[in-house]
Amino acid sequence: MSSDRCKALLSWYALHARKLPWRETTDPYHIWISEIMLQQTQVKTVLPRYLGWFEAFPTIEALASASADDVLKAWEGLGYYRRARFIHRSAQMIQSDYDGRFPNEFDDIMKLSGIGRSTAGAISSFCFSTFTAVLDGNVKRVLKRWYAKPETGDKELWLLAQQAIETADDPAIWNQAMMELGATVCSAKSPSCEQCPVQHHCASAFHVDISKEIRKPVAVLDVHWRIHLFICPEKGIWLSQRPDSGIWAGLWTPPITELEECPEQEPAHIHQLTHRRLHLYPDQSETEPRGDGRWVPSIEGYALPTGIHHLLEKVI
């Protein structure tokens, strides 16, 4: 790693780093939650939920003792709810196996549910100043462009990332700077090479070939769901809890029937997931609901999927 490139990147970061609440702390609980929230979710979406999370669960102990429903409710709006279940499970593991203190060894951090090598590297470097590399999507992109290796696999990228951090004085600042560069300047679709602090040390500067970096589009399956709305002025709305696996696992919804064919009517709402496009067709029934569920006077205390929230806003 060129010392000039290192100095240029760190000088830029000192001047241009975004002010974000998780950068104002080295508390591993706060860093852990922020890192999981930021997986596949934009910063602007995470910010209000991050602050609200610690109002609901100020300590790991409070999180570990909370109900699964309360944890999912606090996660509402972030999507990929499996992350919330992993966090809850890990908090309980920290309470039982580590006396309620977040582990400070990399290998122990890796044992927590939902934490892979890159996330463990971020937590370990940010909180405990270890020279452990991060290789999230932003860092991968920066390294591939620096070395003009758009098709390089993770094995070599991990070597490059580790070599780079070992030249830094402060591993936390180095990892943050790399992630920030990828998020704000060396972006996926429109890199701003003219604003890049390391343009003179980048093999791809001003001629990034985006076409070589674009992944094949993910096949999306269209799913058609009938949403049975049982609404009673005296009782509220009937909700049932989804199974522990599958789409919207553990969340609360009105009863749902999957349709074998696309109805002639237009869906009231279409909700996009990573591999599914959910077409939602409301059916306001006047019969009594059957099966497991409960009448809910207000949905305020229940974790509902964003797609159901949007549907209810349109039809109620």
Automatic annotation (TrEMBL):
One Gene Ontology biological process: mismatch repair
Swiss-Prot/TrEMBL cofactor(s): [4Fe-4S] cluster
Domain (HhH-GPD): residue spans on this chain: 37-184
SUPFAM superfamilies the UniProt entry points to: DNA-glycosylase, Nudix
Catalytic reaction annotation: Hydrolyzes free adenine bases from 7,8-dihydro-8-oxoguanine:adenine mismatched double-stranded DNA, leaving an apurinic site
Highest taxon of source: Bacteria
EC number: 3.2.2.31
First-level EC class: hydrolase
One function term, GO molecular function aspect: purine-specific mismatch base pair DNA N-glycosylase activity
Cofactor binding, per record: Binds 1 [4Fe-4S] cluster.
Keywords: 4Fe-4S, DNA damage, DNA repair, Glycosidase, Hydrolase, Iron, Iron-sulfur, Metal-binding
Family: Belongs to the Nth/MutY family.
Annotated PANTHER family: ADENINE DNA GLYCOSYLASE
Function: Adenine glycosylase active on G-A mispairs. MutY also corrects error-prone DNA synthesis past GO lesions which are due to the oxidatively damaged form of guanine: 7,8-dihydro-8-oxoguanine (8-oxo-dGTP).
Protein name: Adenine DNA glycosylase
